[in-house]
Amino acid sequence: MMQDIAAPAENYLLYADDDADDRAILTEMMRRIDPSVPFLTMQNGLELMQYLGALHPGDKLPSCIVLDMNMPVWDGLRTLRTLKEDKHYKDIPVFLFSTSTSARDATLVSALGAEAFITKPFGQKELMSVCEEFAAFAQKPHLVR
Description:
Layout lengths: L12 E4 L3 H14 L5 E4 L2 H9 L10 E5 L7 H10 L8 E5 L4 H9 L4 E4 L4 H14 L8
Parallel strand pairs: 1-2, 1-3, 3-4, 4-5
């Protein structure tokens, strides 16, 4: 079920992944890197889109969105397409996070407008580096709904 959280006043990140362990690991890593940046998690792309749709005019949009590629209900590709086709969300940087190593998948998500296609799982050092990249987006100017 989607978290019942209003849009944070500061910059924040959204992460959709159906794997609770992956959500917990990434959340913990983000807390280590910058505990001041809210890192909100959802179980799938539909929950993420419902969260964004519930924001009010003037609410901050996330600094970036991280999507698991393979999720039930709405997978990462469907969610990415929906985000990039919506005038409110098309400028939010989106990262696709997947166990896939397929060059075809990487090319497809790039063509759809993703910031990057990142293969998981990682060693702790590599995961820390990726999370630092996500956290850097929280320092950029935010978008408003």
